[in-house]
Amino acid sequence: MHIPVLLKETIEALAVQPGGRYIDCTLGGGGHAAAILEHSSPGGQLLGIDADPKAIQIARARLETYSDSILLVNENFANLQAVCIKYGFYPVHGILFDLGLSSLQLNGDGRGFSFQQDAPLDMRLSPGQETTAADILNTYPEAELAHIIGNYGEEKFSHQIAHLIVQQRPVKTTFHLAHIIEEAVRGRRGRIHPATRTFQALRIAVNRELENIEAALRQAVSLLGIEGRLVVISYHSLEDRIVKQFMQREAKDCICPPGTPTCICQHKASLRLITKKVITPSLAEVQRNPRSHSAKLRAAERTINQDEQYKLADNPNFCLRVEARAWRRPALAKKLRRTFLALQTYTF
Ligand SMILES: C[S@@+](CC[C@H](N)C(=O)[O-])C[C@H]1O[C@@H](n2cnc3c(N)ncnc32)[C@H](O)[C@@H]1O
């Protein structure tokens, strides 16, 4: 059973409300999804996405009581916008990313994510993906392997590990790989098992995890209604850096390099940071669920700038969209409608 991490904090950060419409981009075992559905009832709707077909199957069974309010899609969240357009599921009140893998995947489901059980080195989230971890280990040049292990695993001994892997090819199972790594870092054991970082690096490379997060975050912002919430839980520094930098950049009206005399970027803020400081689990949660120890939650709220108001005003359905989007603050809806009328007089 996967225990959802930072559950209360996630529901608060998403500001889940009855009748709201939410997207869980990392459905997993459906733990967060169940809580979102509970807090958004009556009338709440949830689009759940997961790249792993097994996760969809498990979550569908768990969320059976909400079957009228859910739409579950087996897709990579890198295609988030296409999924939402296909099903007309936008704008939404909140979008959640709970990155990484679920306990069900990590605890050895035969795909080689963990070095605790012997299994073939697959590591693909979806069987539709082409490249497995074994493909990478057994075909990539030594320098590229070292680069992956060093960059995605932040492993100090990446060159020694890559060298020994190449010498011992073909590497086919998790136990074989873990043994090679132990040999490569012999006598230099740290707090964590020496294979941890290399396994993380391979998983990131196989599933293009970092590229997918970047792509999905950009799409997520465009799917949020005004004051819609974006909430991301990450589990290692590479993910968290991407999330933090993305949110900080999108919360700024200018992203010109420091020292630029006048703004040339014309960037406009589309987010407002909700969590100025990152949210981490309490000691009690870490004791209850050790997997949560590295979790970091960041949240932001969708804002709308004047340029976007002009763009929206070009849309004949703007009034309707304003009504649909400004759900939380009737006063804001009224103000936007007034702006629209003013623009209409001025523009047309
Ligand atoms: C930490 S688990 C989510 C657990 C879930 N929040 C719960 O409470 O049960 C992460 C899930 O995201 C999925 N995932 C990871 N990367 C993905 C991607 N690029 N696209 C879609 N799903 C992805 C994994 O298959 C996994 O099931």
* Helix/strand order: HEHEHEHEHHHHHHHEHEHEHHH
The level of helicity is 40-55%
Name the average pLDDT. 88
What is the number of helices? 16
**Gyration radius, to the nearest Å?**
22 Å
The main sheet orders its strands as 3-2-1-4-5-7-6
How would you characterize the largest beta sheet? 7 strands, mixed
End-to-end C-alpha gap? 58 Å
Overall SS class: alpha/beta
Number of strands: 7
Apparent shape? globular
> Compounds present?
S-adenosylmethionine
Uncertain segments are: 316-324, 340-348
Strand content: 5-15%
Q: Can you tell me about this structure?
A:
- This protein is α/β, with parallel strands linked by helices and 348 residues long.
- The protein contains 16 helices and seven strands.
- Strands 3-2-1-4-5-7-6 form a seven-stranded mixed β-sheet, sandwiched between helices.
- Helix 3 links the parallel strand 2 (45-50) and strand 3.
- It is globular and about 70 Å long.
- Mean pLDDT is 88; it is low at 316-324 and 340-348.
- The structure holds S-adenosylmethionine.
- S-adenosylmethionine binds next to helix 2 and strand 2.
